[in-house]
Amino acid sequence: MRGTNTDVVLLCQVSSAKAEHCVETATGLLRRANFPGESRVVYLGNVAGAIIRAMESPETPEFIEAPGYNEQKWRLKTTSGAMSVTISSKPYWGFGLFTSGYLNTVEISGPINIIARLIFDLDASLATSPWQFKHARSVNKYLAKNYPSTSIEANEKTWRSLISQCKNDSNEMIHVMTQAVDNIEQKVNMVNDFQGWSKDKALVNIAAARYDLAIAKEALADRNMPSVERALARTEAALIEANPDHAMNEGDGEFNIDKSLERISFDEDLVIKSVDDESIPLIDLTESE
Fold it and tell me: Up-side HSE of residue 288: CA atoms within 13 Å toward CB?
């Protein structure tokens, strides 16, 4: 369910790491490498950096375990709204001499749909699938020792399940918005022009909404979730402009909407609620008050 809170643990391969960050000595907070205060270098790695960038307005990450002599071995935590993320960086092969021998353990707690969105964006931003490890034999030994209840296959299954959930959620929203466009178009075709509302302009908005729905589908196929959201937002705005009920309700009470015309309504999540499946009578809106 969308609002259900859950805990997820994911393991991922680190493929690159640079000295672009540091840990502020006084606070333990993550800072950029050019931080002027007292600090020590940390190699954050491509996965952790991508996670923090993908989170919406995260708190400044704080190190639970700061790096010591080994600058790639650390543990940090950050939050974003109802979601909290803890990332650990540890070597699993090559005695920590090579970046390819490090993995990140990502522990996430929060609403499952928000977690799924984060993982979808993370996978889309990385050059390689994060569940594919460079040294499979060594990671199996690491899992047997530290996570005996999981495996490489189970870890990959969790990744793919979260990515699929985000895709399904997005496809569901696109489907809902498609139904909304169809229903609003039916209303528009049944109403003539009246003061403050143009049927021709409404039909143009309907066409724009359908165009943006096509953009949303293409963006989802390209794994570009921000573009999906922007396209759906434009679709919603076009529907509001096209909906004759909206124009009527914004007036000074000159028009009274017949309840039989209200076949659909929107809640805050844009879920369409069917009210009446009977045919919609034609209402003459040209009569004066």
Answer: 0
